[in-house]
Design goal:
Elements lengths: L3 E3 L2 E3 L4 E6 L6 H10 L2 E5 L1 H9 L4 E3 H5 L14 H8 L5 H10 L6 E4 L4 H5 L7 H6 L4 H11 L5 E3 L5 H10 L4 H30 L12 E7 L9 E6 L14 E4 L5 H14 L6 E6 L2 E7 L3 H11 L1 H4 L2 E5 L5 H9 L12 E6 L4 H8 L6 E4 L8 E6 L2 E6 L11 E2 L7 H14 L7 E4 L4 E5 L5 H12 L7 E4 L10 H8 L3 E4 L6 H11 L2 E4 L8
Parallel strand pairs: 3-4, 3-6, 4-5, 6-7, 13-14, 14-15, 21-22, 22-23
Antiparallel strand pairs: 1-2, 8-9, 10-15, 11-12, 11-13, 16-17, 18-23, 19-20, 19-21
Helix pairs in contact: 4-8, 8-10, 14-15, 17-18, 18-19
Length: 539
């Protein structure tokens, strides 16, 4: 190392230096004392230097190295050759070391830096003024982090407080490990990239605000490795979206798991489907999901009755499924979930993979935990409306608005001679909410706020219709039938089969060149037909 002139301080050749500059001072005393005990001279800035001194660590302030005071309200303090030269100089390049020596600059072996809390500031409950947001954009910090990470062969860069013990252990070992250095460098660049993505997202929202910017970065943070993916031969992991727009915006990703086995890849998909569906309903509602499709949905003032009806809709599918509620699970509901017997034989206790609810009473949670050691019990917050929906295709991503429409947002236009009764219209609205969560081609049959049958994922609409009618059984008489898209044919096809089954009202988007056939068919059979002008494809 070259000679370092630090104002009144004279750093001798061969001394080891660490630069520490932290906004988040968690673990500062630990790392500062640890480095000092290992023989490192500590160089620091402002509040970090004061905190280190309070912890009994001897500190050289940055100004002593730069011979220049902090200026512009602290905007410029570390942006100086005496700092960056000491970070970026390559130890294996003779002319680099000679240049440092000529200018009296010493090298840094360790750089410990984290950044202004921009993310926390702009997402704080009270909000933040634009100018305050700008002032929380760190400049010097990222510059030091990037410089140290670039020169990772000679400089250890630490941006995560969790890495302090590993850093000290590494330095105590006196053995170099390029993989350790590379991992710290990767984490440093990833840290800065996530930070910059937050600044970029915030500025875009402040300026243009359009949902689809010309360039988009989505910061993801690993929540947990998963045992496997959709199938055991596929490796998998679960990431949380750290975009500013997702802060306190609800969803399964941020759900609290109170009990049970670790979540799997398919668990997350199914829990997400169940939670998104149950949150659509205003009345106390239970939704049962299997393979992301709702197989039972019921709304009642009495949530226990809603639960029983949702299971009864398709008890075979419900077994081993996911149960979601939009109300708190109390002692009575928890007992019902724990003890309810399958309607197929009246004896077998219903088994579920997951229960999801917005909250639990203390007793309710205790009882539910007693159902099974493996039962995953999740507490989730409703997704906010207006989220950006992203979906991957090979080599790219599709982005769209979330499908947030409710029955109150649309019109159920009567196009048949017979108008529906009030209760039939309510049934149609309920079924319409259900069908938007069923895989296309989707048909839902419902009556009295209860899904009686559904057909999903069939390549043609007639097959989905037949499945739904078969599941509904005799209860189909007078029920409402909703299709996620228009019927391309009516006579001797889906519409006529629905009418012949005894359906009371049909709701569909309309838009087919054969819409008149559907109207004529419904008129012939005395069935009410409603056009919504809203399609609900789900792939």
């Amino acid at each position: 190392m070259g000679m370092l002139s630090c104002g009144h301080l004279h750093c001798t050749s061969g001394s080891k230096q660490a630069l520490i500059s932290l906004s988040d001072k968690k673990g500062l005393a630990f790392v500062g004392n640890g480095l000092q005990e290992l023989g490192y001279s500590i160089v620091s800035t402002g509040g970090t230097a004061s905190a280190l001194e309070s912890a009994g660590v001897a500190v050289t302030k940055v100004e002593q190295l730069t011979k220049f005071p902090e200026m512009l309200d602290g905007r410029v303090k570390t942006l100086h050759p005496n700092i960056h030269g000491g970070i970026l100089a390559r130890r294996d390049q003779k002319h680099h070391i000679e240049a440092l020596s000529t200018h009296g600059i010493g090298t840094f072996d360790v750089v410990v830096v984290n950044l202004y809390p921009f993310y926390d500031k702009v997402t704080s409950a009270g909000g933040i003024e634009f100018e305050d947001g700008i002032e929380n954009v760190d400049i010097g910090g990222p510059a030091m982090i990037r410089a140290a990470a670039k020169n990772h062969k000679d400089v250890l860069i630490v941006v995560d407080t969790e890495d302090y013990p590993a850093l000290l252990e590494f330095l105590k070992g006196n053995q170099d490990d390029i993989k350790f250095r590379l991992k710290l460098a990767w984490k440093a660049f990833q840290h800065v990239a996530s930070y910059d993505s937050a600044v970029s997202e915030w500025l875009w929202k402040q300026s243009v605000g359009d949902k689809f910017p010309p360039s988009l970065t989505v910061p993801l943070s690993l929540k947990s490795p998963l045992r496997y993916g959709e199938n055991p031969h596929q490796k998998a992991a679960f990431y949380v979206d750290k975009s500013l727009s997702e802060v306190n915006a609800g969803g399964i990703a941020t759900a609290i798991q109170h009990h049970g086995k670790e979540m799997s890849y398919n668990n997350y998909l199914d829990a997400d489907a169940a939670w998104n569906c149950v949150c659509e309903f205003r009345k106390p509602t239970c939704v049962v999901v299997k393979h992301t499709n709702p197989c039972g949905v019921a709304s009642r003032d009495d949530i226990l009755e809603a639960y029983r009806l949702a299971v009864k809709a398709d008890p075979v599918s419900a077994f081993g499924g996911i149960v979601a509620f939009n109300v708190e699970i109390d002692e009575a509901l928890a007992k019902e979930i724990r003890e309810f017997r399958s309607p197929t034989d009246g004896e077998t206790r219903m088994f579920y993979e997951i229960v999801v609810a917005p909250s639990y009473t203390e007793k309710g949670l205790e009882i539910l935990c007693g159902k099974s050691k493996t039962l995953r019990i999740l507490e989730a917050k409703k997704n906010e409306a207006g989220k950006l929906s992203l979906r991957q295709v090979g080599g790219g991503w599709l982005a769209q608005d979330s499908d947030d429409l409710t029955p109150q947002d649309i019109k159920f236009n009567v196009v048949s001679e017979k108008a529906p009764q009030d209760d039939e219209l309510c049934d149609a609205e309920f079924a319409w909410l259900c069908v938007k969560h069923v895989k296309s081609n989707a048909i839902v049959i419902a009556k009295n706020n209860c899904m009686l049958g559904m057909g999903s994922g069939q390549p043609n609409r007639v097959e989905s219709l037949r499945i739904a009618i078969r599941k509904a059984g005799d209860d189909v008489k007078g029920a409402a039938l909703v299709s996620d898209a228009f019927f391309p044919f009516a006579w001797k096809d889906a519409v006529e089969e629905a009418c012949e089954s005894g359906i009371g009202v049909i709701a569909e988007p309309g838009g087919s060149i054969r819409d008149q056939d559907a109207i004529d068919c419904c008129n012939k059979y005395g069935v009410s037909l409603l056009f919504t002008n809203v399609r609900h494809f789900r792939h």
